[in-house]
Amino acid sequence: MPLATGLRMNWLDAIQWPAMVVTLAASWLVASRRESFRAWGFWVFLVSNVLWVIWGWHTQSWALVALQVGLAAMNVRGAVKNDT
Q1: Which pTM does this prediction carry?
Q2: Where are the domains of the chain?
Q3: Considering the chain, what percentage of its residues have pLDDT values greater than 90?
Q4: Is the Cβ–Cβ distance between 41 and 75 less than 8 Å?
Q5: How far apart, in whole angstroms, are the C-alpha atoms of residue 41 and residue 75?
Q6: Alpha helices, DSSP H, located in 15-61
Q7: Burial profile 44-80: b = 16 or more Cβ within 10 angstroms, e = fewer
Q8: How far is CA 32 from CA 47, 72, 76, 81, in A?
Q9: How far is CA 9 from CA 5, 14, 22, 27, 28, in A?
Q10: Distance CA 79, CA 39 (A)
Q11: pLDDT tens-digit series, residues 75-84
Q12: What is the pLDDT of residue 18?
C-alpha cells in the first residue's frame, strides 16, 4: 500500500473521534438555557452530521449516513425554530 493511500485511510478512519467530540459539544450547547448557545448548538450539530457522513461513507455505513441526513434536517428545523 502506498504511503499516501495509508495516510488518507488513517485520516478517514480517525474522523470518527472529532465527530464524536463535536456531537457532544453540540449536545451541551443545545441543552443550554441561553438562547444564543442553543442556536449555536444546532449549527454545531450540522458540522457533526457532516463529519459522521464522511466517516459513514468511508466505512460504507449506509444506515449511519441516512440517519445523519435525517438528523441534519431536524437540526436545520431546530435552528430555524430557535431563531423565531
Answers
A1: 0.84
A2: 3-83
A3: 68
A4: no
A5: 9
A6: 16-30, 35-59
A7: bbbbbbebbbbbbeeeeeeeebeebeebbeebeebbe
A8: 18, 20, 18, 16
A9: 6, 8, 21, 28, 30
A10: 6
A11: 899 888 877 6
A12: 96
Q: What are the grid coordinates assigned to 50, written together?
A: 457532516
Q: Name residue, grid cell 485511510.
A: 9
- Who's near 68: CB < 8 A, 6+ residues apart? 49, 52, 53, 56
Closest CA to 50 of 30, 75, 28, 69: 69
Q: How far apart are CA 58 and CA 9, in angstroms?
A: 9
Answer for the pair 38, 26: CB distance below 8 angstroms, yes or no.
Answer: no
